[in-house]
Amino acid sequence: MSPAISLNGVTKSFGATQALNDVTISVPAGRVTAILGANGAGKSTAIRLLMGFDSPDSGTVSVLGLNPKTHATEIRSRTGYVPDTPSLYDWMTVAEIGWFAAGFYPTGFQSEFDRLIRRFDLTPGDRIRGLSKGMKAKLSLTLAMAHRPALLVMDEPTSGLDPLIRREFLESMIDVAAEGRTVLLASHQVGEVERVADDVIVLLNGTVAAHESLDALKRSVSEVTISVPFSDQQRESVVPEISGHIVAHVLCGSDHIWLVRDLDAGRLSDLCRRQNLPAPVVRKPTLEETLLIMLRQLRQESRELRQEPKAPEEESSTNRAATF
Fold first, then answer.
1. Same domain, yes or no, for 84 and 196?
2. 321 lies in some domain
3. Which of 216, 231, 246 marks a domain boundary?
4. Mean pLDDT taken over the chain
5. Is the pTM higher than 0.85?
6. pLDDT at 322
7. Domain total for the chain?
8. Which of 2, 7, 67 is CA-nearest to residue 201?
9. pLDDT-based confidence at residue 130 (cuts at 50, 70, 90)
């Protein structure tokens, strides 16, 4: 089966800022795929390229087998798009904007729109200008879904919304995927994404740090912590060789923290004993914790390149709470 979305060797810059650097992504049809990363990682840029709002500097983009720049109308007829800030005609009522949008789609849009506004508790006669942010977000989702698109693209759709409305968005994504359609979701709400995503794409500074099924990522990656005190004269403590593929490594005070794929925990414990090191603490991190460690490594590497001092929390903190 052809991928619903693909980016092949895509690079995109805005002036001196490189938003995407040689990004290659293939999103399978009929699944919920989440693009995760901190602000500025390139998530929104990737979506703008997919929707045909921008063009890549190099590389190719394909959506439902079509080029967004040459087949924009056809792609948009088969795609639902929910931006982070919906652009709606605020002088219209909920019912009027549904009637207006129905003129751009085949028969069936109006009845599905009416069904969805009932589901989301939207009142047909309410003026859009008087709706709350959450109600506008639900109206935007309704307009994106009413033509039953083959692909639903959502760019930070739940940012700033209350938990109940975010839950309704998540339930909608599950419904779309259950019907064999595709969802692409860019979000910083990592904990919520973890409950619905089949696949995850992690973007760090415009490059792909990970792209695989969520189950495989959670199954293969372990977090290893070893507390190794060091003296003021030592720049870094001596640490054991880690068996497995190291995804990330950060130093928080005397704690070395690694993300490791396919860890041989028994071999590592034996090695620590032979080197008279504390026993390693091995656990399975959540998706949020995995991203946090990746971002900490990126930040530490960036500071080292600029020769900046580490922030106090990176010297001694072992806090795992992340905000994206």
1. yes
2. no
3. 216
4. 85
5. no
6. 38
7. 2
8. 7
9. very high
